[in-house]
Amino acid sequence: MRMSTAQLLRTILILAVASVSRDCFSQSLSTFELRHEKLTEISEIPVSISLDEITYLHDSVLVLYEISTKGKRQIPFQIEQGNPRTLTFITGYGFAQGEKITYELVSGENFQTETVGSSLSDGALVISSGGKNLLRYNFKTIYPPAGIDTAYKRSGFIHPLWSPGGQVLTRIQPPDHYHHYGIWNPWTHVLFRGDTVDFWNINSRQGTVRFANFVSVVDGPVFSEYSVLHEHVVFRPGGREEVALNELQKVRVYRPANDKSNFIVDFLIQLNCAGENEVRLLEYRYGGLGWRTTGEWDNKNSTVLTSEGRTRKNADGTKALWCVVQGATGNDHAGVVMMSHPTNYNHPEPLRIWPEDQYGRGDMFANFSPTRDTDWLLVPGKTYVLRYRFLVFNGHTNVVKAAEAWKHFAYPPVTVVTKTE
To answer: What's the rounded Cα separation, in Å, for the pair 255 and 264?
Structure first.
């Protein structure tokens, strides 16, 4: 059916008015730029800015655009409610070195969908994206295999940590160390109220670290994050227990990179004395954030490389900004860049890396251990913070990629607001 001239003109007028209406309701609030030393195709990194310095509008009516030589495109963002609110997005994919990248925040219709989510199942919280599991946090107490001393039971740990391709990169309760639990954070040699307590070797029955409660769980288009309270519990005679140390552990998992080859896991660990007694973390060769890797890795199919150029042969006991542990996983290759933040105690941090001949085949264990060569005194009323980042990847990572990833973690790009309406 053909339109008359009058009908055609009326249709054009309606479309024009609709277009004008959309423009009227889409108002530019601010533009800002990122200042950084370098961006490459492997450098997708999280960036956060203070939102309240720009607008008090609700996130449901905000849209974020990225403007580069590739054009203008809407990108996902996530807002943390706080004082001030923080807007977080991911930048860096596919840009040339030195390219100027501008961002524009406008008021308008927001079509974001959640891409990183969490679910509770059978005593665990699982974080996934795009139908693929990334990380599982176990808050339910897990017992050792039948016939093994039940003192080895444990809660509050990560397993599995999956690679982007779905390979499992962690291991729990290996027969050589039943107290190893994927990724976990106990201390080995602790002075508390005149006694030395071991929270790591739980079969000693001196103490343990256990999940106490969830503080928060947040999902969104950019990251999923959980915060949990862990209690470092001292076992006293007669079955009594005493909490020596409270640990608030916040773990944030960012959506995988556009090319699906990697994703980021950030750890924020806050330590507080639980009562009026100080806690001294005594010098010991291991303790703190540990990672027992997949049982697939041995001294023939996996490697270690640190920021100081050390390898599996000589990394143990040395200090590092970052450490790459990677190896073969079935028909694939995967690994993690472990990064220590410059504000951490005793940074650059000492490493505990198992030697090449561990148990004959060279099983892999990696640990940033800030108390390896010195004590750390924690006093009541103060908060002590450790920050780590894991860049989890498939494929291979070299010194250039690892160093750049650490630089973006330690010194993220600075945002400069160029216009605010």
So the answer is: 8
Q: What is the CA radius of gyration of the chain?
A: 25
Measured CA distances, 128 to 18, 40, 280, 332 (Å): 39, 26, 38, 21
> Which pLDDT does position 113 carry in this prediction?
75
Q: Quote the pLDDT of residue 295.
A: 97
Q: Kind of pairing, strands 322-329 and 376-378?
A: unpaired
CATH T-level topology, domain 116-409: Beta-galactosidase; Chain A, domain 5 (2.70.98)
Rounded-to-integer distance, Cα 315 and Cα 290, Å = 15
What residues does 396 pair with on adjacent strands?
Answer: none
Assess whether the previous peptide bond of 84 is cis (omega < 30° from 0). yes
Share of the chain above pLDDT 70, in %: 89
Exposure b/e, 20-33, CB count within 10 A at least 16 = b: eeeeeeeeebbbbb
As a 3-state breakdown, the chain gives helix, strand, coil percent values, each rounded to 5, of 10, 45, 45
> What residue ranges do the domains of the chain occupy?
16-111, 116-409
**What is this structure's pTM?**
0.91
188 vs 90: CA distance, rounded Å: 37
- Going 194 to 200 to 204 to 209, the CA torsion angle's sign is positive
302 within 8 A of 180, measured Cβ to Cβ = no
